């Protein structure tokens, strides 16, 4: 199916029409997948189109008792799943990925309806998400152990990699498909069953992906999606000793709570939390190149991205030219409904995110920043934030101190390399950073000094299945993607054969 998009002056009813179409194709599921059954539940939660606030669907509100059933089912499925040959698990993961790609248009539309991102970005997310399943399908077959040169005569020392057990995933609304497959691809490839608790804002994407998992032959209990209240559903996941691993993507605040909760049963925890990325532009680069990079690093996913450039530091000599070109690019951005093909920037998925953006803009302007905004489309609701460039930002402004998570770009001048490294590192966050310079020596020097888990040098695009995604400091623990991501779901076992 190919979606040709809508061009409409009004956004009312767009998502509802789209969902009607998807319902006819049996692509909207409001039931949770628990122990091989689809559970509609007694109670329901509504799903809204964040662009208009209209209710577009309803989904099951599962209880803690449902989650307990899911944990028991996962535990029961573990022995058979880990007992499959890695090639057997890989074949199922590949088939899941190809079903996702086959239904890319339906998945993308569903994603845009509930999350709000422009349809072209939603399509990209489906391909990106399927990529993790494919990549881990291959990597799961390479979970090699080690043979260690022995320190004892007559002995053989082996290290094996074995699946940790039942894994839980608590996933966010900004990448409602890819953040599930990045975790599930690794867990399932390692031999672990996984239970996903998706964000309440975007359950439809998670459930659609679960239906495709079932069609691909993922056995009962191996991949389950339980939807409902985050606190009620995470409590059993945290307290049950059968849940051996927990992977979370979301805010640092919730990450801390989960880490504390997981401590009681000493789970293996990986956390992908907030960012506050510095984007550093030296005066030896072409302005256009730096502006293109900043546009991509700031405005992808309408700014609702933990990799988003949050502090754009520009060296003084280039500063005015950069701000002028950046402002021109920002004013060209088209704001609208994600289903409108012309849209660059959609609504914020949550009202609280839009409110935080407006609060940061007000704070910065009150303290002396200059604001340039994009043009407003005809009909916009409260969840929309007009893409805004704030120049002359200073470190005392809120936007320079905390993550924005929306389409607001802060530009700050700097003078020297030493100064900008110090300012870039002066944050409790350490997820991603960007450097634009034509000097290779400088790029190498600074990349050594920045306290970030991921760096893009002269590029704003570096994520993907083979890279170890994750942060330093309070941006998280552990890595996703890459062979390091697989290791999050495995335990090392050292075996010493003696008396040989
Ligand atoms: P959040 O951390 O509250 O939500 C993320 C996930 O955690 C969702 O599944 C949610 O249901 C769940 N959750 C929330 N409270 C929980 C609790 N007490 N126990 C267990 N699970 C819980 O994030 P948010 O409030 O939706 O967004 C706020 C901010 O978080 C954003 O502005 C952004 O800074 C950050 N965030 C980061 C990412 C990321 O990609 N790292 C993703 C989403 C949000």
Automatic annotation (TrEMBL):
<dbReference type="InterPro" id="IPR050740">
    <property type="entry name" value="Aldehyde_DH_Superfamily"/>
</dbReference>
<dbReference type="InterPro" id="IPR016160">
    <property type="entry name" value="Ald_DH_CS_CYS"/>
</dbReference>
<dbReference type="GO" id="GO:0005829">
    <property type="term" value="C:cytosol"/>
</dbReference>
<dbReference type="InterPro" id="IPR016161">
    <property type="entry name" value="Ald_DH/histidinol_DH"/>
</dbReference>
<keyword id="KW-0560">Oxidoreductase</keyword>
<comment type="similarity">
    <text>Belongs to the aldehyde dehydrogenase family.</text>
</comment>
<dbReference type="InterPro" id="IPR016162">
    <property type="entry name" value="Ald_DH_N"/>
</dbReference>
<dbReference type="GO" id="GO:0009450">
    <property type="term" value="P:gamma-aminobutyric acid catabolic process"/>
</dbReference>
<feature type="domain" description="Aldehyde dehydrogenase">
    <location>
        <begin position="38"/>
        <end position="495"/>
    </location>
</feature>
<dbReference type="Pfam" id="PF00171">
    <property type="entry name" value="Aldedh"/>
</dbReference>
<protein>
    <submittedName>
        <fullName>Aldehyde dehydrogenase family protein</fullName>
    </submittedName>
</protein>
<dbReference type="GO" id="GO:0004777">
    <property type="term" value="F:succinate-semialdehyde dehydrogenase (NAD+) activity"/>
</dbReference>
<dbReference type="InterPro" id="IPR016163">
    <property type="entry name" value="Ald_DH_C"/>
</dbReference>
<dbReference type="InterPro" id="IPR015590">
    <property type="entry name" value="Aldehyde_DH_dom"/>
</dbReference>
